[in-house]
Design a protein that fits this description.
By secondary structure, the protein is of the alpha/beta class. It has a single domain, classed as UDP-N-acetylmuramoyl-L-alanine:D-glutamate ligase, CATH 3.40.1190.20. Helices cover 33% and strands 24% of the residues. A 9-stranded mixed beta sheet has the order 5-4-1-8-9-10-11-12-13, sandwiched between helices. The protein has a 4-stranded mixed beta sheet with strand order 3-2-6-7. The radius of gyration is 18 Å and the shape is globular. The model has no long low-confidence stretch (mean pLDDT 96). Bound molecules: alpha-D-ribofuranose. Alpha-D-ribofuranose binds next to strand 2, helix 1, strand 7 and helix 7.
């Protein structure tokens, strides 16, 4: 069972000829609206990958709330931990260039008022607690504490990476997923080597699994004494939004379902690659059969 504690957004996406520089206006055609938010995206990706998933978070009391939850409801994610708070649902304004690269501005809305206490009595021993970086860091810390008390495994994808001391959070994490930029930032803060291989090795020295995603170049990961490196499957990217979330969701699902670590990495990579081929952070999350087919081809 996977418990996700994190953000729920509505994404408004505009395809652009190029991403704007500071102070610049760039126009595209009509916008498209999709459910999003890193917590919700990862919950949906894990569910589509075959795990039982429960999401704890918040939406606002507005017209965006139900739209933001629609995919999760349809996929069978347990939403009993989602509260409706006064104010606005989280909103992301996303520009995508012709190569599928994005620029995202987030209005956090209800997401900055989520409380880790809502997890009390819900997280069970032997389950996985998944966290990202869009909830307040103090609540992420508390959530990790609750996981520690109940014997749940902590899966943390600190994106966006909180600008604070992260050592205590790292100490409580069993599986850490970061991209290269996040690895370099955390390394600078904590005095770790910033280069991906060494970051992963150093982080794994204390017993956790550390995965550094390298975009279209694949991943490097370390667990115990083992170092794993896989090239990314080649796909034609139309929208990279949510690719990291699809990776995390499918990886967490595979680990939660007891797959070997290297197979779980391949399933995460397959999901991340497939997610780049469709527009929208959640609409692109593949199902377990699609994931398995592509994961079989990764060597
Ligand atoms: O990781 C992608 C997500 O980041 C989008 O869905 C958007 O809502 C932002 O939270």
């Amino acid at each position: 069972m996977i418990f996700v504690f994190g953000s729920i957004n509505l994404d408004m996406v505009v395809a652009l000829p190029r991403l704007p520089k500071a102070g610049e206006t760039v126009s595209g055609p009509d916008h498209q609206t999709f459910p999003g938010g890193k917590g919700a995206n990862q919950a949906l990706a894990a569910r589509r990958a075959g795990a039982e998933v429960s999401l704890t978070g918040a939406v606002g009391r507005d017209a965006f709330a139900e739209l933001a939850l629609a995919n999760l409801r349809a996929a069978g994610v347990d939403l009993q931990g989602v509260r409706v708070l006064d104010g606005a649902t989280g909103l992301a304004l996303i520009g995508i260039d012709p190569k599928g690269e994005n620029q995202i501005i987030v209005a956090s809305g209800a997401n900055i008022r989520v409380e880790a206490d809502w997890l009390e009595g819900r997280v069970t021993s032997g389950s996985t607690l998944m966290l990202q970086g869009e909830a307040p860091l103090r609540e992420i810390r508390k959530a990790m504490g609750i996981a520690g008390q109940t014997g749940a495994s902590v899966f943390w994808n600190p994106a966006p990476v909180p600008q604070d001391d992260l050592m205590d959070c790292l100490d409580r994490t069993n599986t850490l997923v970061v991209n290269e930029g996040e690895a370099a930032y955390i390394a600078g803060k904590l005095g770790m080597p910033g280069e991906p291989d060494n970051f992963a090795r150093d982080g794994a020295a204390s017993g956790r699994a550390v995965i550094v995603t390298l975009g279209s170049r694949g991943i490097v990961a370390a667990k115990g004494e083992g170092l794993f490196r896989f090239a990314a499957p080649q796909v034609t990217a139309v929208d990279t939004t949510g690719a990291g979330d699809a990776f995390c969701g499918a990886l967490a699902a595979a680990l939660d379902l007891g797959r070997p670590f290297d197979r779980a990495l391949k399933e995460g990579m397959a999901a991340g690659a497939l997610a780049c081929t469709v527009t929208g952070a959640q609409s692109s999350a593949p199902d377990k059969a699609e994931i398995a087919r592509l994961a079989d081809q990764i060597v």
